[in-house]
Amino acid sequence: MSIDRGTPTLCLRGVSKSFGAVAALRDGQLELRSGSIHALVGENGAGKSTLVKIMAGVHTRDTGDFEFEGRGVEFRNTAESKAAGIAVIYQEPTLFPDLSVTENIFMGRQPVDRFRRIDRPAMRAEVAGLMQRLGVSIDPDRPAQGLSIADQQIIEIAKAISLDAKVLIMDEPTAALSGVEVERLFTVARSLRDEGRALMFISHRFEEVFSLCDTITVMRDGAYVSTVATQDTTVPEIVRMMVGRNVDELFPKFASTIGDVVLRVRGLTFPGKFADIDFDVHAGEIVALAGLVGAGRSEVARAVFGVDPYSSGEVLLKGEPLPAGKPAAAMRAGIGFVPEDRRQQGLVLEAGVATNITDAIRGDLTKAGLITRKAENTAARTWATALEVKCNALDTLAGTLSGGNQQKVVLAKWLAANPILLIIDEPTRGIDVGTKSEVHRRMSHLASHGMAILMISSELPEVLGMADRVLVMHEGRLTATLSRDEATPESVMFAATHAPKEIPA
Questions:
Q1: pLDDT tens-digit profile of 323-340?
Q2: Degrees (nearest 5) of the Cα angle 459, 461, 463?
Q3: CA–CA separation, 361 vs 98, rounded Å?
Q4: E strand or H helix at 471, and its extent?
């Protein structure tokens, strides 16, 4: 299939953008066409977000051409971009929680009746029509508070359609969605494509890119690399263009000697969440907790660390019982915990890289109740260098880093504490393929030096590639324990979908 070279709906050529001495974008190029879904891929820091923000009117370009519907444009703010017909659907939309679905969709542009009063029946009727058109069942009158991320994204899409958006940009929309929610979103996206709209999809998940998108544009180091028809390329070829090299070993495994039991969990139960959980993790071993979304994997990990409660059972570390519900005790005993949500639970976004890396060892750096900047930087620099954290300086705010570098900072924080057991929940979610390989290499290196690792992952290739043993959960129960040789896509998925019995209420 050749790529259509007709007039694109949106076109960027030779676009650059710098922030002080940092060149975020050197040569941005992109063409979006009506009736097509276009993927934009690249490692974190490749310039994708900056390109999107220029299209959305958040940033203005320094150089280059920007054309929309055949004419040159310069969006000075987001309102101008939206008015032109460009809508951005982010991974985590920001709706007004106390307002209804209808009120959120019509915020700032409510229709009025002949008495100049807000015409609520007309608003509600239009929203009901939008939901029917999108093939979803969301009550127009329900408050936005409590809606799932998937439903919030649908509301943002409905808002874009009501504004007659010609271009919809979806920035990592599936990172927090279940498989069923992803398929519903894709169904909506395809229907919008068939209506003649131009869509752009940003994702690190290649199976989604190749399933949904017609064409793929690759960026690297702030510059355009290539645009190819999806059916004319392969995942290895896209990876090579993204990272500038072949990533032959995405799941490196170093030789490791399996030692004594480090973590022993027996009868761990919390009604409605998980029940009768028994497993061990040995020194030098990577054990994966696998299963579908909602199986209870993260809840078990958080209970082991003491963040979440459990009603019965015991957790032993090196044969010593750990008190329930006390993360500080778990840390003192030698457990590190990298949470699933690094931004909300793993980092202080408003603090610098050095402060975040030394967060778990601040007591060791304190003298006479004080900690010096020199001591903090010295300790942090060791791990920032070891994990190749890319930042301008150690006082760079964590919230300004790319997702992959944020994950490295969280890892550095716990590795600085020298744990004997590392619990890591979704180690590579939302980060690029190059950084994934680095994180996997670091995990394998740690295990080869005797660390016990408990990994929770929703990515089956990651589970199969990294784990020495796989524990499969379904609806709060362990349904299988598989050795590395026994773990196959079929055996894991069978255990993840066939629970022997229900969790007691």
A1: 999 999 999 999 999 888
A2: 70
A3: 40
A4: strand 469-474
Other Cβ atoms less than 10 A from the Cβ of 394: the count is 20
Express each pLDDT in 176-212 by its tens digit: 677 778 888 898 899 999 999 999 999 878 888 999 9
Token digits of residue 415? 């590795």
DSSP states along 290-334: EESTTSSHHHHHHHHHTSS--SEEEEEETTEEPPTT-HHHHHHHT
The answer to whether 59 and 221 are in contact (CB under 8 A) is no
Q: In the 8-state DSSP scheme, what is residue 360?
A: G
* Helix, strand, coil percentages for the chain (3-state, nearest 5): 35, 25, 40
Alpha-carbon distance 358 to 365, whole Å?
Answer: 8
Q: Which two tokens stand for residue 175?
A: 């990172």
The CA-atom distances, in angstroms, between 283 and each of 261, 287, 397, 414, 451 are: 6, 10, 35, 17, 5
Q: Which residue carries 């004419």 as its tokens?
A: 71
Is residue 127 a contact partner of residue 102, using CB atoms and an 8 Å limit? yes
Question: 191-207 burial, b for 16+ CB within 10 Å, e for fewer?
Answer: ebbeeebbbbbbbbbbe
In 369-468, beta strands by DSSP E: 421-425, 452-456
CB 371 within 8 A of CB 397: no
pTM above threshold 0.70: no
| 157 Cβ contact list (under 8 Å, min separation 6) | 87, 89, 134, 168, 188, 192
Name residue, tokens 């598989």. 482
Structural contact between residues 310 and 269, judged by C-beta atoms closer than 8 angstroms: yes
Rg of the chain on CA atoms, in Å: 24
Virtual torsion, Cα 74, 160, 144, 339, nearest 10 deg: -60
**Beta strand ranges found along 33-166 (DSSP E):** 36-41, 63-68, 71-72, 86-89
Alpha carbon distance 348, 399 (integer Å)? 8
110: Cβ–Cβ under 8 A, 6 or more apart, which residues?
118, 119, 123
Distance CA 316, CA 263 (A): 6
Cβ count within 10 A of residue 74? 10
Banded pLDDT at 403 (limits 50, 70, 90): confident
> Strands 71-72, 63-68: parallel, antiparallel or unpaired by DSSP?
antiparallel
Dihedral sign for Cα 448, 404, 250, 178, please. positive
